[in-house]
Write a structure and sequence with these properties.
- This protein is α+β, with helices and mostly antiparallel strands.
- It has three domains: about 55 residues, no CATH class; about 120 residues, Pleckstrin-homology domain (PH domain)/Phosphotyrosine-binding domain (PTB) (PH-domain like); about 35 residues, no CATH class.
- About 30% of the residues lie in helices and about 35% in strands.
- It contains six helices and nine strands.
- Strands 1-4-5-6 form a four-stranded antiparallel β-sheet, with helices on one face.
- The radius of gyration is 25 Å and the shape is extended.
- The mean pLDDT is about 85.
């Protein structure tokens, strides 16, 4: 369904919750049906969201309609991505993903010691003199934002820190975790924080099985 058609449905039938039923949100659809679109207030808000283009999942680059298509086992077509597609290539998934690097830094010392600590720069401390103090260490995480894509031919990740562009046969495994996915490509493992990790795995499996 295109945006214009959806807007017309929300304007003329939204008071009865028709757009909610289309989105498979049956509970809210029934509420709209029996309350006249929450006494017209919810209906008006939905019209404003459609007109301003804000009727999307705030945690995803993909619209609610696209996410519902994936949930229902359909392959969406994502248009307007920043990747160069081949003539016969179609993008089915595109969303924000975060990679990260953890490192342990020394932030100070506890206990008695005859030496002194001099902080040369962030994360780097030089200690002189005697020892005996216990180092205080903290884990520091640096996060890098990027975009993860699935097309009918490959999986692509682009960020300021890490990038890859691999066909499906090069991907050893995909593991879904609580806050993202772990992609194993040969001997290299990529941990990517992803809000739509369940949708990613569904699209990955659907495209791979269709090849």
């Amino acid at each position: 369904m295109n945006k214009k058609t959806r807007l017309l449905i929300v304007i003329f039938l939204g008071v009865f919750g028709v757009h909610k039923f289309i989105d498979k949100d049956y509970k809210m659809g029934l509420i709209y049906l029996f309350t006249g679109g929450l006494c017209g207030i919810g209906w008006i808000i939905d019209i404003i969201k459609e007109l301003t283009g804000k009727n999307t999942n705030s945690k995803s680059l993909m619209s609610t309609e696209t996410l519902n298509m994936i949930k229902n086992g359909q392959l969406p077509t994502i248009i307007g991505t920043n990747i160069n597609l081949a003539n016969d290539e179609v993008c089915h998934y595109a969303d924000i993903g975060y990679t990260f690097k953890d490192k342990t830094i020394t932030t100070g010392y506890t206990g008695k010691s005859s030496g002194i600590s001099i902080r040369l720069m962030k994360g780097l401390t030089y200690r002189t003199g005697g020892s005996g103090g216990k180092a205080i260490r903290e884990n520091q995480r640096t996060t890098y934002a990027g975009t993860l894509y699935i097309t009918n031919k490959r999986v692509i990740y682009s960020s300021t820190n890490e990038c890859f562009d691999k066909t499906f046969d090069k991907i050893t495994s995909v593991t879904e975790v609580n806050d993202g996915i772990i992609l194993q490509i040969g001997s290299t493992s990529y941990s990517i924080i992803l809000n739509t990790h369940t949708e990613f795995v569904k699209i990955f499996n659907m495209v791979k099985n269709n090849q």
